[in-house]
Design goal:
By secondary structure, this protein is an alpha+beta fold. The protein folds into two domains: 229 residues, P-loop containing nucleotide triphosphate hydrolases (Rossmann fold); 113 residues, OB fold (Dihydrolipoamide Acetyltransferase, E2P), CATH 2.40.50.140. It is built from nine helices and 20 strands. The strands form four sheets. A six-stranded mixed beta sheet has the order 6-7-8-3-9-10, sandwiched between helices. A five-stranded antiparallel beta sheet has the order 13-12-11-14-20. A five-stranded antiparallel beta sheet has the order 15-19-16-17-18. Strand 17 and strand 18 form a beta hairpin. Belongs to the ABC transporter superfamily. InterPro entries: AAA+_ATPase, ABC_transporter-like_ATP-bd, ABC_transporter-like_CS, ABC_transpr_MalK/UgpC-like, Mo/tungstate-bd_C_term_dom, NA-bd_OB-fold, P-loop_NTPase, Transp-assoc_OB_typ2. It is a peripheral membrane protein. Its main location: membrane.
């Protein structure tokens, strides 16, 4: 496999342009568009029934779009055959042959492609060693752990040496420890071989920890594409703001004051570090702020008076839910800073004005 290209020299491995797909009266995809650079770990992120699996099946050639265009390495594959795409897909269900050994499961795609026996043996053993399955080759899938079965399914796709690897929620059926291990394994394989990977998941942690670039999907379309940092720091609308970040962003309803630098809200005026030039005075708005951008006031510092409603100790940090004038705000404190705080206690909190996000109440779009 080729070494990963530098970001400046990457070509476009995959491009979907205004793709739509319906099943009967149900719309699965609506004008879906995105591009993936060669060697990129690209994540499709969104809840169930948002179109992730349909998108992967379109790329693999298992279904054809009703409208739009699918290009793979610059070639139009919109209505092309499955063969020749240099694409391999790992499904959510492992889809292993239970009556075949691990060796024969790995060898199956090469046997179907009529690869020579010596080449098959060499590639099976190479792939098994890479996935730490070399001592399991004589075992049947039913005798393996969930993580081992997942690695066999992954190996059966990798053994074909595809240029693009599609992964459809591959870790959903694993427990938390195995998911953590397999996330690390997939990132290692990506670094080692420079594969172009398109990874579908409804799990925010998977998306943020694995994806070099993430497309946030909603109702069969892309809401926003960006790096994990870009999606976290500059969400384009309320949907993305609420999906990225844990604990989720606090949302405060309000109204833009006349000078464009303050939102009037139930907890008081919220001043910004910048002027909102694209909003009208009196316009209804929603202010978002991350829990990590709220802190307890110190000394004689003025802030918003709030009551502690709930404490959630999470080891080295504590998530605190506070109620102020009908609004519930969550903040994150180091364990040491939260010690001694109790439910029902009054405290003054400070919101960082440089970290406020403002969205239109009418359509959820960010106000710049």
């Amino acid at each position: 496999m080729q070494a990963m290209a530098s970001p400046d020299t990457r070509s476009i491995a995959l491009s979907l342009k205004n793709v739509s797909k319906t099943y009967g009266r149900v719309g699965a995809l609506h004008n879906l568009s995105f591009s993936v650079a060669e060697g990129r770990f690209f994540v499709l992120f969104g809840p169930s029934s948002v179109g992730k699996t349909t998108t992967l099946r379109l790329i693999a050639g298992l279904v054809a779009p009703d409208r739009g265009r699918v290009e793979i390495f610059g070639r139009d594959w919109t209505n092309g055959t499955i063969a020749g795409r240099d694409v391999s897909m790992v499904f959510q269900s492992f889809a292993l042959y239970p009556h075949l050994s691990v060796y024969k499961n790995l060898a199956y795609p090469l046997c179907e492609a009529r690869v020579g026996r010596e080449e098959i043996d060499s590639r099976v053993r190479e792939t098994a060693a890479m996935l730490r399955l070399d001592t399991k080759l004589d075992r049947k899938p039913g005798t393996l752990s969930g993580g081992e079965q997942q690695r066999v399914a992954l190996g059966r796709s990798l053994i074909r040496r595809p240029r693009i690897l599609l992964l459809d929620e591959p870790l959903t059926n694993l427990d938390a420890k195995l998911r953590h291990e397999m996330r690390a394994e997939l990132k290692r394989l990506h670094r080692q071989f420079g594969l172009t990977i398109v990874y579908a998941t409804p799990d925010e942690l998977e998306a943020l920890s694995m994806g070099e670039e993430i497309a946030v999907l909603r109702h069969g379309g892309v809401v926003q594409t960006g790096t994990p940092d870009e999606l976290y720091e500059t969400p384009r609308d309320l949907y993305v703001a609420g999906k990225i970040g844990s604990p989720p962003m606090n949302m405060i309803k309000g109204m833009l004051a006349g000078d464009g630098t303050v939102i009037e809200s139930a907890i008081g005026p919220l001043p910004f570090a910048r002027r909102l030039n694209t909003a009208e005075p009196g316009e209804a708005a929603v202010v978002g702020i991350r829990p990590s951008d709220i802190r307890l006031a110190t000394g004689a510092e003025s802030g918003v008076t709030a009551s502690i409603a709930m404490l959630e100790p999470l080891g080295d940090i504590t998530v605190i839910s506070m109620e102020a004038c009908g609004e519930t705000l969550r903040l994150v404190l180091p364990e040491a800073a939260a010690s001694g705080l109790e439910r029902g206690q009054q405290a003054s909190i400070v919101l960082d004005p440089s970290k406020l996000h403002v969205f239109r109440a009418s359509n959820g779009q960010a106000i710049t």
